[in-house]
Amino acid sequence: MLLLLSAAPGPASPGHAAATVTGHAAATATGSVTTTVQDAGTGAPARACVSLVPLDREQLTRVYIGESQLGRLGGCTDEQGRIEVTGVEPGRYRLFAQPYETGRYGRQWVGGHGGTGQRHRAWVVLVGAGVTSTAPRIRLDPPGQISGRVTDAVTGLPVVGAHVAVVPFVPHPKYTPDTAISDDTGRYTVTGLGSYDWALRFSGPRIAAQWSGGVGGALLARTVRVRPGGTATLHQALRPPTAVRGSIRVDEPAAYGTVVAFDAVTGDVTGAVDVGTSYDLPMLPGQLVRLRCDCSFGPGRWYPAGSRFTDGTPVWVGRAPVTADFDLTIGTDG
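Structure (tokenized):
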């Protein structure tokens, strides 16, 4: 029997067709995704949890405090390695697999014929209303790791407390994220990665979030090859930030308020900071972003007064500080 998991509620990548779809007798408002997970070497069933990551920017930006940008749809396999995720909003998705046996298998973005370490190279699954979409079989490979040193690009000194991850996330001010963190010498190690080419994202307090190679987006990031059982090396000198700051007016502030920056084109998280009556967000220069203030008990507000991602006014982050004020006491334009 399949393990059924329900979930509440863009174009495919070049060279990656949509998965096969099979119609049901009666159409519904949502669809489902099914696949199987196996050992890449033996073909035996394996266990993993799978996230469905949307291409649609409005869905992709539904990420809030304490969450990774892996979407809100997914589930885990049964003992035979089978999975079906139900209640999936129609659209296009990529799959990210995290195995149960982390010492035996590595994480992966799911490709058409095996894993990959890069989201934009993952297979795109098309989900329609009232249909079941069959995603590619997930083949888990042995894990390896990446280790290196994080330094300040200006001073050359080690950066302590940098969070090193493979997926963007919005940090929680109270809880430490489940990522590698650089130590007193700037050293870090990211474990449990499939044997593919991976890029890493560096972030943290007073750090301009940036991908390996010192760039704002994953598509331009420097990658490093992970080998089974091996340790790849990736050092990163972090570029200095530009301040994006402003005041926040709100009738009833949330217990934990956050301003989150998203890439204006892709919808990827590019930065986040805790807020009070004002905020000061360190950002990597050379980015066009949209800002959202999750600062009240109501829906987040896209700068300056939008209710959706596409309502937000893009903000260019150059070398000079940027001011973007939020007034949540007025109505939205949506």
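The longest helix spans residues 57-60. The first strand starts at residue 4 and ends at 6.
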